[in-house]
Structure prediction request, 126 residues.
Amino acid sequence: MEANRQSHTFGRLGEGPTGLAKLCLIVGMCSIFIAALGSSAPDPAKDIIYWIQRAIVGGAIVILLAIFFKHPLPSQRPEGLTGVLIASAGLFLAAWVTGIWPGVFIAPLLPLLVAGSWCVERLRRG
Prediction:
Protein backbone atom coordinates (compact mmCIF):
# COMPACT_ATOMS: atom_id res chain seq x y z
CA MET A 1 0.00 0.00 0.00
CA GLU A 2 2.82 2.41 0.82
CA ALA A 3 4.55 1.77 -2.51
CA ASN A 4 1.24 2.46 -4.26
CA ARG A 5 1.00 5.90 -2.68
CA GLN A 6 4.58 6.82 -3.48
CA SER A 7 4.53 5.82 -7.16
CA HIS A 8 0.94 6.98 -7.83
CA THR A 9 -0.05 3.70 -9.46
CA PHE A 10 -3.57 3.55 -10.86
CA GLY A 11 -3.92 -0.21 -11.16
CA ARG A 12 -3.44 -1.47 -14.71
CA LEU A 13 -3.75 2.02 -16.14
CA GLY A 14 -0.14 2.79 -15.34
CA GLU A 15 1.57 5.11 -12.99
CA GLY A 16 2.29 8.79 -12.75
CA PRO A 17 0.81 11.29 -15.19
CA THR A 18 0.04 8.66 -17.82
CA GLY A 19 -2.15 6.67 -15.44
CA LEU A 20 -3.87 9.81 -14.20
CA ALA A 21 -4.51 10.97 -17.78
CA LYS A 22 -5.99 7.57 -18.70
CA LEU A 23 -8.19 7.63 -15.61
CA CYS A 24 -9.45 11.14 -16.46
CA LEU A 25 -10.18 10.10 -20.03
CA ILE A 26 -12.09 6.98 -18.99
CA VAL A 27 -14.11 8.72 -16.27
CA GLY A 28 -14.86 11.68 -18.54
CA MET A 29 -16.07 9.46 -21.37
CA CYS A 30 -18.11 7.23 -19.05
CA SER A 31 -19.91 10.30 -17.76
CA ILE A 32 -21.92 10.19 -21.00
CA PHE A 33 -23.80 7.28 -19.42
CA ILE A 34 -24.58 9.47 -16.41
CA ALA A 35 -26.17 11.98 -18.78
CA ALA A 36 -28.14 9.19 -20.45
CA LEU A 37 -29.49 8.08 -17.08
CA GLY A 38 -30.29 11.68 -16.24
CA SER A 39 -32.49 12.05 -19.30
CA SER A 40 -35.00 9.60 -17.82
CA ALA A 41 -34.96 11.16 -14.34
CA PRO A 42 -37.58 13.63 -13.05
CA ASP A 43 -36.86 17.29 -13.81
CA PRO A 44 -35.32 18.36 -10.46
CA ALA A 45 -33.02 15.33 -10.43
CA LYS A 46 -32.20 15.77 -14.12
CA ASP A 47 -30.60 19.16 -13.47
CA ILE A 48 -28.52 17.78 -10.61
CA ILE A 49 -27.36 14.81 -12.68
CA TYR A 50 -26.39 17.05 -15.59
CA TRP A 51 -24.40 19.34 -13.29
CA ILE A 52 -22.58 16.32 -11.86
CA GLN A 53 -21.74 15.19 -15.41
CA ARG A 54 -20.57 18.68 -16.31
CA ALA A 55 -18.32 18.78 -13.24
CA ILE A 56 -16.81 15.40 -14.11
CA VAL A 57 -16.07 16.38 -17.72
CA GLY A 58 -14.83 19.84 -16.76
CA GLY A 59 -12.55 18.39 -14.11
CA ALA A 60 -11.15 15.80 -16.52
CA ILE A 61 -10.37 18.48 -19.12
CA VAL A 62 -8.71 20.75 -16.54
CA ILE A 63 -6.57 17.91 -15.18
CA LEU A 64 -5.50 16.89 -18.70
CA LEU A 65 -4.57 20.48 -19.50
CA ALA A 66 -2.54 20.68 -16.28
CA ILE A 67 -0.73 17.46 -17.21
CA PHE A 68 0.01 18.84 -20.68
CA PHE A 69 1.41 22.11 -19.32
CA LYS A 70 3.53 20.17 -16.81
CA HIS A 71 4.99 18.07 -19.67
CA PRO A 72 4.81 20.32 -22.77
CA LEU A 73 7.62 18.76 -24.81
CA PRO A 74 7.04 15.29 -26.27
CA SER A 75 10.62 14.21 -25.56
CA GLN A 76 10.13 14.93 -21.85
CA ARG A 77 6.73 13.25 -21.49
CA PRO A 78 6.37 9.88 -19.77
CA GLU A 79 5.81 6.92 -22.07
CA GLY A 80 2.28 6.73 -23.47
CA LEU A 81 1.20 10.19 -22.35
CA THR A 82 1.18 11.71 -25.84
CA GLY A 83 -1.27 9.10 -27.11
CA VAL A 84 -3.61 9.63 -24.19
CA LEU A 85 -3.53 13.41 -24.62
CA ILE A 86 -4.37 13.05 -28.31
CA ALA A 87 -7.23 10.67 -27.48
CA SER A 88 -8.65 13.31 -25.15
CA ALA A 89 -10.45 14.77 -28.16
CA GLY A 90 -13.15 12.26 -27.25
CA LEU A 91 -14.05 14.46 -24.30
CA PHE A 92 -15.57 16.81 -26.88
CA LEU A 93 -18.50 14.41 -27.18
CA ALA A 94 -18.90 14.18 -23.42
CA ALA A 95 -18.89 17.98 -23.14
CA TRP A 96 -21.29 18.38 -26.04
CA VAL A 97 -23.84 15.93 -24.60
CA THR A 98 -24.80 18.30 -21.79
CA GLY A 99 -23.63 21.54 -23.32
CA ILE A 100 -20.68 22.46 -21.15
CA TRP A 101 -19.58 25.01 -23.73
CA PRO A 102 -16.12 25.82 -22.36
CA GLY A 103 -15.42 22.08 -22.57
CA VAL A 104 -16.74 21.91 -26.13
CA PHE A 105 -14.13 24.46 -27.19
CA ILE A 106 -11.24 23.34 -24.96
CA ALA A 107 -11.51 19.55 -25.49
CA PRO A 108 -10.49 19.70 -29.19
CA LEU A 109 -7.84 22.29 -28.34
CA LEU A 110 -5.82 19.87 -26.21
CA PRO A 111 -4.94 17.46 -29.07
CA LEU A 112 -4.06 20.47 -31.22
CA LEU A 113 -1.68 21.71 -28.51
CA VAL A 114 -0.09 18.26 -28.33
CA ALA A 115 0.33 18.10 -32.10
CA GLY A 116 1.67 21.65 -32.17
CA SER A 117 4.24 20.92 -29.48
CA TRP A 118 5.35 17.85 -31.43
CA CYS A 119 5.76 19.95 -34.61
CA VAL A 120 7.67 22.70 -32.79
CA GLU A 121 10.04 20.22 -31.21
CA ARG A 122 10.51 18.46 -34.56
CA LEU A 123 11.36 21.75 -36.30
CA ARG A 124 13.82 22.73 -33.54
CA ARG A 125 15.70 19.47 -33.88
CA GLY A 126 16.09 19.86 -37.48
